[in-house]
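Hi R.,

Here's the chain you asked about this morning:
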Amino acid sequence: MPRPILATVHTGALRHNLEIARERAPDARVWAVVKANAYGHGIERAFEGLRGADGFALLDLDEAERVRALGWRGPVLLLEGVFEPRDLELCSRLGLWHTVHCSEQIDWLAAHKTQQPHKVFLKLNSGMNRLGFTPTAYRAAWARLNALPQVDEIGHMTHFSDADGARGIAHQVALFEQATEDLPGERTLANSAAILRHARSALRGAGSLAADWVREGIALYGSAPDFPEHSAAHWGLLPTMSLRTQVIGVQQLQAGDTVGYGSTFTASAPTRIGVIACGYADGYPRHAPGGTPVLVDGVRTTTLGRVSMDMITVDLTPVPGAGIGSEVVLWGRAGNGTVLPVDEVAHAAGTIAYECVCAVAPRVRVEVAE
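And the predicted structure, written out as tokens:
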């Protein structure tokens, strides 16, 4: 039989989480962000759960070709735009929308020969200081684009740096509205954190932001973008990936016995432990310390000692009936319905849920279920 570790992608949960964005921003259309291979879920596996979106936003041409190959004929947006002039040929052929964030991309468009003008989103650097034109350069960039016959419609875009925290979005919204005042075109500003935390206040109340696009990323995949302040359950999100395995070995420790490389756990009393088929080569975070939560037969317990390449040890004290073959959930939903949020695992490991779901290794079998 194959090694018992298995990742399950839940299409019903993807569908549900997409509807959360619609409920929070009812006047907006929704980009389903499927960059990083749909945050590790697989574009082809996630597509059925996300085909109710208004458009797909992603990073590169390979991902765009895969979405088109699935039969999607609606909008597809390259979030970082093109990386070299010849990329525009494929944009023309596939009918892709793309972001323009630097003057070189405008130069490439000006030299591009196409029968079909492109739809672009001009990006404003409103404080993230990664990609985009500064507020003082933005309108000149828009004027250059607007003069090109290669460009059809020009939308407006920015990205929030602090939508998940106390600083919020008001300062960036103000810069965006000033830079785009009186300019025609659709707007897209809100990421997952802004959709959940601000769409019913600042975003919905700003006339220039209504009835355009929001970009739902990590919230689509069942993670709270502002964890630990709020949980996924607080926002009504469901887990879209369950990483499950089994107990493959059992040891009975005596007081003073140690576990694993570096002997980082020492038993203070007789302790029954399980060895499970998962390790950092499967994508589980190696730096997750002992005490990271895990479910065994649907009962919450913790890891013990270091994560190794292929195995992790867990405390079976809370689950005296567990043994060889017992279900273990690293994150997601157990067979009895108990949920271990990926946010909790990531937080214990000193990382974020994005990294956990994106890191699941190719050797892990994946199935799709409702």
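The longest strand covers residues 241-253.

Let me know if you need anything else.
M.
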